[in-house]
Amino acid sequence: ELISSLRSKLQTLWEERELVLSEARECAERGEELEAMVQDVCKPNEFERYMMFIGDLEKVVSLLLCLSSRLARVQNAMRRIDGNTDAEEKQSLNERHKLLSRQREDAKDLKENLDRRERVVSGILAKYLTDHQLQDYRRFVQVKTSLLIEQKDLEEQIKFFEEQLENLEKSIP
Fold first, then answer.
1. Cα–Cα distance between 13 and 9 in angstroms, integer?
2. Which of 12, 16, 148, 172 is the most buried (most CB within 10 A)?
């Protein structure tokens, strides 16, 4: 029953992932349309700023999500430390925790910098675009970010349930 339940949950997650990937493709198409429009109306240096911001948006959000996920796994491992855990493993977990915490703080700084750059890009675009076009741009940035987060969350859940299923199948003779 448990194996069947895990397989069913995985199937649901795979279907959700396909929907999110489809939305991501639509978002990418919208991004290409925006890019063409921005290139038409902006000066070359302004367009370059826009493109750098859009490219960095995905990188910084993905970095933050990855570091947060890795940090959570290390914190979970640290909670499982008991009297039987050897000192070397404890030290290794503590060092990884410190490193990942520092890296996540650095990534948060990058995100704050990215948010400032987004305000600059919005200001540039506000000179050229209509209110409706500017709203489309802001919605695009918001949807792109949301989809990245949703994709990462689904990937984590799928990985977790696949590991659970694999461990369960191995434990049954």
1. 6
2. 148
Q: Above 80 in pLDDT, residue 173?
A: no
Give the residue from 23, 121, 111 showing the smallest Cα distance to 64.
111
Half-sphere exposure of 102 (CA within 13 A, CB side): 5
Q: Is the distance from CB of 66 to CB of 149 less than 8 angstroms?
A: no
66 and 92 in contact (C-beta within 8 Å)?
Answer: no
What residue has token string 């404890």? 90
Which pTM does this prediction carry? 0.82
In the chain, which ranges are continuous DSSP H helix?
2-41, 44-79, 87-128, 131-171
Per the CB < 8 A criterion, the answer to whether 158 and 20 are in contact is no
User: Which residues have a Cβ under 8 Å from the Cβ of 145 and sit 6 or more positions away?
Assistant: 57, 61
pLDDT bin (cut points 50, 70, 90) of residue 42 is: very high
Give per-residue pLDDT as tens, 109-135: 999 999 999 999 999 999 999 999 999
Q: What is the DSSP string of 134-160?
A: HHHHHHHHHHHHHHHHHHHHHHHHHHH
